[in-house]
Amino acid sequence: MKIGLVGSGGREHAIAKTLMKIPNRDSLFVYGSHHNPGIERVAKSSKVGDFRDVERIGDFFSSNGVELVVIGPEVPLIAGASDHLRSNGMKVIGPTRAQAQLEGSKIFMRDLMKRRVKKGTLAWREVRDVASARDFIAEVGQVAVKPVGLTGGKGVWVMGVHFDTVDAALEKVEYLIQTDGILLLEERLIGEEFSRMAFVSNNTISPMPVAQDFKYAYDGDQGGMTGGMGSYTMADGSMPFLNKDDLEQADAILQETVTAIEEETGEDYRGFLYGQFMATADGVRVIEYNVRLGDPEAINVMALLNMDTAILFEEIAEGILKKEEINFFHQASICKYLVPSAYPASSKEQAVIEINEKEIEEAGFSVIYASVAQKDIGLETLGSRAVALIGLGENVFELSDKMEEMLKQVEPPTIRHRKDIGDERVIRAKIQKMKELRGMSS
Ligand code: AMP
Ligand code: GLY
Fold first, then answer.
1. Are residues 263 and 368 in the same domain?
2. CA-nearest residue, atom 2 of ligand 2
3. What is the atom index within ligand 1 of the atom nearest the CA of 190?
4. Segments forming the whole domain that contains residue 256
5. Distance separating alpha carbons of residues 189 and 54, to the nearest angstrom
């Protein structure tokens, strides 16, 4: 089959790898924002262009006779790439433009949840003036201040985390009123976050193993928010700080959201849905929805997928997927991004790095390429998350130690990573935190 892929980050390299794991059968055509050296290895042809230019995306795939397209990032989905490609006769993994509003507009999402899903919600207010913000803060206490549109995971300010006083909250509010005219205030939730992603097809969700993303730049959740420094999954597919009830609640919320958005748009949802949840003392709440796979979480789950991915994706796109067919390896996984030393502060830092892929593979890990380009002088970082390492194993703690040992040998001096992703003490502290929170509520 001729398969198209939109996107050129780590998530898309992970997708490309699993799609192309059966030798000499399918061919891959990639439309990305840069030439990713890892994807180039498995692709037949690639093109660089704007993700909003859906006509150009369509022309590239049509002229190559592509039959099935996987859309990685949110920007082309929100721009209507799925609708355009489907109208040109292609099968597509990715929701329609109307459905992508779940991620594109936080107000649309909160409103849909309030009207149709009713579970997993929290107190929120659409704000256009400071007085209304002041009233809301007086009502709920601590808040999260959010732009209503896409933020790349970096534009949210949480009281008690990023600032402490009501005045500081109102300063952020004023800033967003000036820049956007509108913003979203939410009550601040306390708990542990987890990423539950699902394939959606046939009006049904087929969940993937739960992942936890480490969003802060430095160990111990210090520094600024990033797109995600790495993520782990556990062998049982859940998180050690979640109980069975939490996971059932999260899945029920995802399913009801799919049903609601399908009914409201009159279109089947075919693609990925990613619920960013918070387990709190009184149940699971939705922090946000993404209409795509998470990055880095996709790197974990695509490595764990024990199926013929091209066939699986074709079934998703045709709307005929059967939940019972889904099969993942029952192993833990850890993914860590290596990033330029100033990331996320500077997005223009370029350095040449050497990645000894052979040595990494001999140690039992794989390399995923992201924001890097292959130049004559070597592999050049482009400023954002450069390269990820992914490993699978029986025990997440042992895997974490093994990965750190290996990184001591192979990490180039100009880049860095978080050492505490999947670390035993960190995970045990999360379990303890949730125990204490739940104890307080009873
Ligand atoms: P978002 O872009 O909406 O996913 O927010 C980015 C991050 O901000 C989340 O992953 C959380 O860590 C934090 N956050 C967002 N909303 C809330 C909230 N209502 N309460 C507490 N933390 C939040
Ligand atoms: N890892 C967070 C995201 O993909 O949005």
1. yes
2. 294
3. 21
4. 192-428
5. 37
